[in-house]
Amino acid sequence: MYRLSLAVAVVMALARTAPAFELERDAELWTPTFIQAPVTNGWTGMLEVNPRFRGDLDRMNTLIVRPWFGRELAKGTFAHAGYARIRTRGARTVTHEDRAWGQLQAAFKPAEGWTLTVRPRLEQRWLDGATGPAWRARLFVRAERKLRGSLYGVGYAETFVRIGDTPGAPRAGFDQQRLFVGIGRDTPKAKVEAGYQLIRFARPYAADRKLHCLVVNTFLWPWGRAR
């Protein structure tokens, strides 16, 4: 845990020394926390609180609060449904988004020390300025490799695709791609992982935008370890 904290501190210090223009446009710090209840009679619940900060750390750009519940369909396979409230602060405006979503999540162990997780998700989004709900599909694939002791390496990719056209909302098609690589520590009631994430956003009339993120994920099981 000390090594993770030191790595985060070093990256944040380097970020503060970079040009402010680049930090504001091209870098962010994400610190999501996931609090999960253990599986009881096949059911589980989780709350995600995800603040995101500009690279110079002088303000929070986005706050996501996302509660959900799920049921175990088979060992390691769950169906989840939930809600999300997103507040985003721009240079001159503040926007809000509400989401209803559902997903399937399955975890496998393809080889000794490896865990592979696959998660397709479908979102129904209510955006400021849109005349109705907009739909988006996401596919998340995560690979985790056990290292020495409680340490593990992790990498994941997630692709976002907008479905259909809603007046006032972004048009259908490719939305964004996320790629993450990092290292974590696993303990009986918590996991913490830190790493680098590259995001590529599609823009209709300009080159795709890239965003560089330092991500620190915290997973908590205060009532006992979830599966």
Judged by helices, strands and strand pairing, the structural class is: mainly beta
How many whole angstroms does the radius of gyration measure?
Answer: 18 Å
**Helical segment count:** 2
Question: What's the story with the biggest beta sheet?
Answer: 12 strands, mixed
**What is the CATH topology descriptor?**
Porin
**CATH architecture descriptor name:** Beta Barrel
Average residue-wise pLDDT: 89
How many angstroms does the end-to-end distance come to? 22 Å
Shape: globular
Structure summary, number of beta strands: 12
Contiguous uncertain segments of 5+ residues: 10-24
Helix content: 10-25%
Number of self-contained structural domains: 1
SSE pattern = HHEEEEEEEEEEEE
Q: Beta-sheet strand percentage? A: over 45%
State the CATH class: Mainly Beta
